[in-house]
Amino acid sequence: MAEIDYKFNEDKYIAELKEYIDKTYGQHYAQDDGIQTLEFIKSMGDYSGFCKGNAIKYLSRYGKKEGKNRKDLIKTLHYVLLLLDEE
């Protein structure tokens, strides 16, 4: 397969997103028993709405908190990926 010449640095942003997501598995997002808060929310039946709300929250505050904070965009993408898992 030929190597793709990404015109808009998509490969770079995907790698950055993966690095961010990988870090969430070892931070405060996981409880002592290894269950992530998101897993608990999913078991309660509120997962889709929670993810949509957070995606909207982070996207809407982009450019407002600490200027153009790219972390807000990365977090938005993470919540959108979580919604894809619901498909």
UniProtKB/TrEMBL annotation:
Domain of life: Bacteria
InterPro entries for the chain: SaV-like
Name of the protein in question: DUF3310 domain-containing protein
